[in-house]
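Quality-control log, excerpt.
Job 1 of 2 completed; input and output follow.
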Amino acid sequence: MIRILACCCLLVASFWAAAAATAPAELKLLDEHPVAGMVGGNLSGLALCGGTLMAVSDRDDDRLYRLDTRETLWQATAEPFVAPAPPATDLSWRIRLLSWVAGFVRGGWLDLEGITCDAAGNRYLLSEAYISVLRVDPAGHAEWLELPDYLLAQAQARKLLLAFNALYEGLAIDPQGERLWLAAERQQRGLLRVQWQGDRWQCHGRCVLLSESKRQLPPPILGKTSWQADFSDLVFFSGKLFTLERAAHLVCRRDAGTGRAERCWSYADTAMAEPRRYAEFNGAEALWIDADGAWVGVDNNENRRNDGEDRPIVWHFAVPDGGWGARL
């Protein structure tokens, strides 16, 4: 019996030693910026559009925000738009009812969870409640993309988009505005892709690149064993996809054609520093990646940190050693 226990202890120790040896490198924090002026708070998406950092809130259906980044305190200025009636969806009546109730109670009927831009200056906003994408052109005209009818069916066949508040959570587009990726948040999490072909959006081959239900080891500082993996935002940069994985405090580089993870970096040391901790829910919801680093936006859900800060926060991290394309 003693030998069995000793063997088990050795196996556990070996497992944790191997996990520590392959632990993701920690991103280096350069700056931290509170964001003022977002009417509904709840920063849920970031994107650099024509040299200007833009943001959306999942509480505001009629505006996106331009961020003045010249000072430590970033000031948000609203850029209004009028969204047409959202398209009908084939989501279950239960999910649609719960989304309606959530919008009524907290505000934000559309539940905007992401923003991205193409080279022409079009902004693409992701509605989780209606699993749809709103395109806002530089003049402020807004229209819903006509995504394939079969996209949802293929997603649900792969066990995606089946639970309320666990639908689309991030989107990315290529500079030409011809390839669009969508991230399904959790239960299960996944990555989907559609392409502009001729005169319509279609799936090139299969719609679903990745669908998985997995558990991840958390940062050791949290003292937990494992938890359900998720996606909370998505960026296309330099031919790769980058995912924000909120539960594990990771930014991961992925193959844009398969969704396969290639390398991850951690921001846990920044997020879990004692002054930055929250007593209640908060989460990293927004991501932007480029040659100048990574920007991670925190949706504080109107809660206050240990240091008293109660505004949305954006962290600016340095490009990791070796660059975003570095191998392990």
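Job 2 of 2 completed; input and output follow.
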Amino acid sequence: MKNKVKYIALIPVIILAIVLSCGKKDSKEGNPDSIISGTTSILVDESLMPIVEDQVSVFQSQYDAEIKLLPKSEKEAVIDFSKGVADIIILSRDLNNDEKAFFKNKKIKPKVTSFAIDAVAFVKNNKSNDTLIELKQIIDFLKGSKNDIKGLVFDNPNSSSVRYLCELAGIESLPSEGVFSVKTNNEVIKFVSENNGLIGVVGMNWLTQPKPEMQKYIDELKVLSVKGVDGVYVSPSQDNIATRTYPLARVLYIINCQGYDGLGMGFASFIAGEIGQRIILQSGLAPVREPSRNIKIRNQIENKK
């Protein structure tokens, strides 16, 4: 039975490989991987690590494959991607026009697959009475205007969260006052849980899938509902992320520049397929495709006495 289930799970990967291989030359000989076996490395925006680790763990348990994850800030990951440190990258955005032009000049056509919807969340210490925040307040604060915000805590100056909010505010970099940078999302969580009055900026995935040792710090936090342009306060719940009514929802992508039928293709098919989307659903994030539901139908009705 176990072999049968494993075979069924493999079918979408095989079909994708056949479709994408039509009209292409055979994969180069000597590659260390195929779509379901071998070894490869993947650069990962470190703010997305919890969900990516889950996907890799299940993928490796089903196939004879070894994937090494290289977590870095978004900016560092993209630089390493352009240098060829790895041919696969997972980001909370697609490549921009300059990055696409770079790979086009190298005669490489990236294969981009969306697989989940995450969110940037704002958190405060439980001692605070605040449960709401206006996105306009955050943007004004980042632009240098003084308001009720005492300070923002980010994971890393080069992170995707910083880039995302700077783009919303229309600024090139963070202001020099009132903004704190640590190193990781876990450090943001710990810092805010121990310091009342500050607002932490974290990837939602770090709150829905914490490491056991982080739960005590998360228990000291409250996640703020955010008021967007529509004037309604919305919490970053799974449903609100899925419908994009939460104003800071963001799509996650795996971008593959391997140029042959390797693990980049197989893993992208896996996380965008039935099993991968179920993992997303169970994580508290939103899948980009609703996985099917198994319904058991009984042939006979039991009469209870």
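Post-run check on job 2. The first helix runs from residue 2 to 21.
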